Backbone:
């Protein structure tokens, strides 16, 4: 495919851009925990399938109602690739992996996304290598590891652990693939993405022999509805909007801020104690984020 040249990132981050960045961090800061909670009531891949089915309908209606429409041509191909990787492969691996991997450790693993994104962006010719940004990603990842240092030592089966690692790597690639395509409205891109990911998750659910019963309690529906509205219609739409405006390596730092938000939510909502190592980790995460921002201002 001869993809249209991607739109150049904004020379300076706008307020709207940082609001979208913050929105993604705030929403996704809760999703690892909510997925883990939902797995207690509904089989994971079946829950992901229900979420994608609901999100497909909602996003399609919103795309048509707002006049942005659904992508066509090269934009359709790009959105389908994004959906196959994010909502298909990555969702399957993440939902299944979190049946055994603690949500905090999952957040640590997802901290590799800035590094993986930098590699994919370089290999696919989107961005030139930036040593300062790679260093910033390493500092931020060290901070995430410090935040959840207790869970890193937890015994986890290798299969689910590798599933989460590959889910993070695939998520990194998906953003780069969406960036390679032509600029497109985020509602339509995510509608197509969810539409493509749905049969993959559903097929994986049947292949693994999950039970396919419509949830019958409010407790079982709450995680699914929350992840549909906040995660798919909220977070991923903001993410796709950012893809149109920022370079992917800067956007990827969302994944290292998310654990900080998760830590704050756990402290406020569940009165969890915060060890000194976690506080030090927060400092490292924001130091890495600051270095990453500075790297964008350095002439390469």
Residues:
């Amino acid at each position: 495919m001869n993809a249209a040249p991607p739109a150049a990132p904004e020379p300076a981050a706008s307020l709207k851009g940082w609001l979208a960045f913050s929105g993604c961090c705030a929403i996704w800061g809760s999703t690892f925990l909510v997925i883990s909670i939902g797995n207690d009531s509904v089989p994971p891949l079946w829950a992901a399938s229900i979420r994608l089915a609901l999100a497909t309908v909602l996003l399609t209606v919103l795309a048509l109602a707002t006049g942005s429409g659904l992508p066509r041509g090269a934009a359709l191909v790009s959105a389908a690739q994004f959906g196959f990787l994010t909502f298909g492969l990555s969702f399957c691996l993440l939902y299944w992996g979190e049946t055994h991997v603690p949500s905090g450790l999952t957040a640590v693993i997802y901290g590799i996304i800035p590094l993986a994104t930098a590699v994919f962006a370089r290999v696919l010719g989107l961005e030139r290598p930036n040593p300062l940004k790679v260093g910033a990603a390493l500092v931020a990842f060290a901070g995430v590891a410090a935040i959840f240092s207790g869970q890193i030592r937890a015994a986890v089966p290798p299969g689910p652990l590798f599933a989460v690692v590959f889910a993070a790597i695939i998520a990194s690639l998906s953003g780069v693939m969406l960036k390679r395509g032509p600029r497109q409205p985020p509602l339509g891109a995510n509608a197509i993405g969810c539409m493509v990911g749905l049969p993959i998750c559903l097929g994986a659910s049947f292949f693994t022999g999950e039970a396919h019963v419509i949830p019958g309690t409010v407790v079982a529906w709450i995680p699914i509805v929350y992840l549909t509205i906040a995660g798919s219609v909220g977070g991923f739409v903001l993410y796709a909007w950012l893809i149109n405006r920022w370079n992917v390596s800067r956007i990827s730092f969302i994944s290292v801020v998310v654990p900080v938000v998760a830590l704050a939510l756990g402290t406020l909502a569940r009165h969890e104690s915060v060890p000194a190592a976690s506080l030090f980790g927060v400092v490292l995460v924001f130091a890495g984020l600051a270095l990453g921002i500075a790297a964008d201002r350095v002439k390469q």
